[in-house]
Amino acid sequence: MTTALERGATMGRMKLRAIFSLMFFAVCLIVLRAQTPATPAAPQLVILDTDIGDDIDDAFALGLALESPELKLLGVTTEFGNTELRARLVDRYLQAVGRSDIAVAAGEPTKTNNVMTQAAYAKRSSNGKHADGEAFILQQIRAHPGQITLICIGPLFNVQGAIARDPATFKKLKRVVLMGGSVYRGYGGPNAPPIPEWNILNDPDGLKALLGSGVPVFMMPLDSTQIQLDQKAQAAIFSHGSPLTDQLTLLYHEWSGTGEWKTPTLFDPVAVTYAIRPDLCPAKPMRIEVDAKGNTQPVAGVPNAQVCLKSDEQGFLGFLLGRLLN
Q1: How much of the chain exceeds pLDDT 70, in percent?
Q2: CA dist., res. 197 & res. 268, Å (int)
Q3: What's the CATH number where 109 sits?
Q4: Which of 67, 197, 223, 318 can pair with 323 through a Cys bridge, CB separation 3.0 to 4.6 Å?
Q5: 274, 263, 149: which is closest to 221 by C-alpha?
Q6: What residue numbers bound the domain in which 264 lies?
Q7: Higher pLDDT residue, 15 or 225?
Q8: Structural domains counted in the chain
Q9: Is the Cβ–Cβ distance between 310 and 223 less than 8 Å?
Q10: Beta partners for 218?
Q11: Quick check: 174 and 149 in contact, CB under 8 A?
């Protein structure tokens, strides 16, 4: 007959075995979870709004968006000047890289004396009528409320028009990331005084409308976007020989015009990069006031934008080259 002491000892051993079994099971679960690959996050839904065809940086921005799996490009909308010809440029570009599945829409044309340096490339694309850019933006917002990042790398005519048509729908954007403005630095060196930046100069009312729309705004001004692509980096891209880099090569040489090396300033790709890697261009809350001349001045008051005043230039260039050279 077992004694009470023996029964107690047996029960104690059983409890210890149960505890060790549970601990072993928990350790196994932790190890399995550590070895199981994390489920990749769903790509961000984005629309790129661009005045592609004048400067060359829009072409690099579009290339970066295409080569970034973190983004799902719902469409490209063109604005400023001859928007149909700009849309034809995008058509040819997308077809050449096997992405004709991406929608292309054209905004309302506007008057401009600015030279479209890459018009010859665009004119070799078929001449068809494109969908209404402003309507396309609103249609996509209705289909994906609260999910779309609108990346704006040109004057904000399509934004202004979409807000005027349907402000309640426009407000359902997740956010707007834009290249535009000059807060403390203008064109040129780090000590250059602020000056109306091109995109805002050509449509100051567009930025006013955007800042009052209720949509979160993330702004990449001249302060953080004057990053140059040196000859070594250009040579790596232009000699790469992929369908994408071949298009960049063609467009670069039309932009340069003379056949000599020119140094692109990569204003617009910084906005695309921010949508993916905000750590490369940390933003801080500011209140930005826009005047009729396109000046974007910081003022006291409730913030209406997140503004990046300094970017990690080497980190950005490494990220861009890594993507374009795949």
Answers
A1: 87
A2: 13
A3: 3.90.245.10
A4: 67
A5: 274
A6: 44-324
A7: 225
A8: 1
A9: yes
A10: 177, 306
A11: yes
pLDDT number for residue 176: 99
Q: Are 156 and 178 in contact (CB under 8 A)?
A: yes
Mean pLDDT of all residues belonging to the chain: 91
Identify the three-state secondary structure at position 71.
Answer: strand
Residue 151: closest CA among 137, 165, 139, 164: 137
Question: 203: helix, coil or strand?
Answer: coil
SS3 20: helix
Instruction: Beginning with the edge strand found earlier in the chain, give each strand of the sheet holding 305-308 in spatial order.
Output: 131-132, 103-106, 71-78, 44-50, 148-152, 175-179, 217-220, 305-308, 283-290, 296-299
In a domain, 281, yes or no: yes
- The helix or strand, by DSSP H or E, that contains position 290, with its residue range, turns out to be strand 283-290
Are the C-beta atoms of 209 and 159 separated by less than 8 Å?
Answer: yes
CA nearest neighbour of 70 among 94, 48, 101, 46: 46
Residue type, 24: F
Q: What are phi and psi of 33, to 5 degrees?
A: -65, -40
Instruction: Give the number of residues written for the chain.
Output: 326
Is residue 26 in some structural domain? no
Mapped to the 3 state alphabet, what secondary structure does 206-254 carry?
HHHHHHCCCCCEEEECHHHHCCECCHHHHHHHHCCCCHHHHHHHHHHHH
**Spatial separation of the C-alpha atoms in residues 42 and 60, rounded to whole Å:** 24
Report the 10 Å Cβ neighbour count for 256.
15
